[in-house]
Amino acid sequence: MSTSVKDRLITVKNNISKKAHIVVKTEICDTRCPHQCTTYVCPAKCFEIIESKMRFQYEDCIECGTCLHACDQGAVSWTFPDSGHGVSFKLG
Ligand code: SF4
Ligand code: SF4
Questions:
Q1: Could you identify the atom of ligand 1 that is nearest to the CA of residue 33?
Q2: pLDDT in the model for residue 58
């Protein structure tokens, strides 16, 4: 039996920091990105186009690192969350 990505993400625990560990220069997304690929590749749907504008929210991020590698426009700055914050994964 397969489980959807959305169902699997329910098992991720996240101690969300008030400080964003990913910063996105959304003006680049809105004005010169030809593909907006992060809206497709982020498994947690942190990147969304709403009324023709990029909306990014870090709170649901599972720290997979995909957006850092997928963005070829220099719009994504990525650090690890402050100590004691971020996600923990339940195995099994
Ligand atoms: S690929 Fe980079 S520039 Fe393009 S929409 Fe995603 S974050 Fe923005
Ligand atoms: S690190 Fe992964 S989950 Fe977090 S915003 Fe980037 S692609 Fe999405």
A1: 4
A2: 95
